[in-house]
Amino acid sequence: MKYIHHEPDPPVHSEPEISNQSQHAAEPVEHSRVIAICLLAGKIMLQSGGETYRVEDTMKRMAAALGLPHSHSYVVPTGIFFSVDATEPAKLIRISERTTDLDKVSEVNAVSRRIGQGLLTVQEAHELLLEIERKPSGYSYAVQLAAAALSSACFTIMFGGGWGDFLPALICGGTGYAAVILFHRWVRVKFFAELTASFVIGMLAFLLVYVGAGFERDKIIIGSVMPLVPGLLITNAVRDLMAGHLVSGLSKGAEAFLTAFAIGTGIAVVFSLLM
């Protein structure tokens, strides 16, 4: 009788299975990083005065370049909704404050283009966006006040005022812009800050004309309130409406209307008191 010797079967290694499990476990983390980057980019752009359609397009392009081609974004002036597919829950960011800083919008667009060209990793892109978010405004308050004062004086000349009204308009414009910044710090209601600033401009214009420092108070007032006029907001509202973003366009248009109404109300109160 012959005995057949069987070699023991080689042990089955489960390393590939373990690596696949670790790969699947790491995938949601990577997805969450990409989602965080897209939301951060959209937040910076929307807070800095970017148009709604530009924010949505930038977020979708960044997500596609980072490996999430099926993303969906919905942007309104007060919030951003972002989702990558049907299995992941949608993410939301609330936008409470908005200003005008087109330099940050340009920098985020530059980061988006570098991501699309494959020049940035996920970590590098996230660090750059955090640096842009922490970056202070490009101009100090002193420079902003000087620009507002000088533009007010120039607008007064452009609207038909004389050179004798140049200095009063410069004073009124700078004081009015300072009042907007100051009152907005005290009361976080933009409408109230703009109404109060226009009231200060009107009172100061009447006072300067009364003491003989100026001649045409209407020209001084018109030129001085121009730095408060929501020109960028009106432009973005029209562009969003033309791009089909009706909710954002109408809401920005309503905000621009309220700002113009606040400016007009402040000046009207001055005329009703002093005329």
Helical region count? Answer: 10
Domain module count? 2
Order of strands in the sheet with most strands: 1-2-3
Structural class: mainly alpha
Order of helices and strands: HHEEEHHHHHHHH
Number-wise, the strands total: 3
The major beta sheet can be summarized as: 3 strands, antiparallel
Mean pLDDT metric: 84
Kindly state the percentage of residues in helix.
55-70%
Report Rg. Answer: 28 Å
Specify the overall morphology. Answer: elongated
The first-to-last residue Cα distance is 129 Å
Q: Low-confidence parts, pLDDT < 50 over ≥5 residues? A: 1-29
Strand residues, percent: 5-15%
Describe the structure.
The chain crosses the membrane at residues 166-183, 195-215, 221-242, 254-274. It holds the Pfam family ThrE. Residues 37-273 form the Threonine/serine exporter-like N-terminal domain. Belongs to the ThrE exporter (TC 2.A.79) family. It comes from Paenibacillus silvae. With 275 residues, the protein is mainly alpha-helical. It has two domains: 15-134, no CATH class; 141-274, no CATH class. Helices cover 67% and strands 5% of the residues. It has ten helices and three strands, in the order ααβββαααααααα. A three-stranded antiparallel β-sheet has the order 1-2-3. Helix 1 packs parallel to helix 4, helix 6 crosses helix 8 and helix 7 packs antiparallel against helix 8 (217-225). The longest helix has 33 residues, at 15-47.
